[in-house]
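Lab notes, practical 5.
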Amino acid sequence: QPLALSLTPDERRAISTYYASFAAAPNTGLAPAPSDPRAAELSRACTACHGSSFEGAEMPVRAPRLAGQGQEYLARQLVAFRSGARVDPAGR
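Output from the prediction step:
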């Protein structure tokens, strides 16, 4: 975010256009093992905001794309949310 603040609106649009030109990575490493009894609950909780294929959504809230994110990254973010070190845009 600090770097983006130093860019002009045209520069931000150009960068956005550049990254939007890449094909989405396959949805990998997101689902818990089917034997995990929490799998269905976790899937419902995530897809409620991030969309059925984890591609991100605008409604009910703006939720970023999870598909293609690394498993370690996602695990770190979940730990950060649980500890309160990270919050969603609504402050939760």
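Observations recorded by the TA: The two ends are 20 Å apart (CA to CA). The mean pLDDT is 78.
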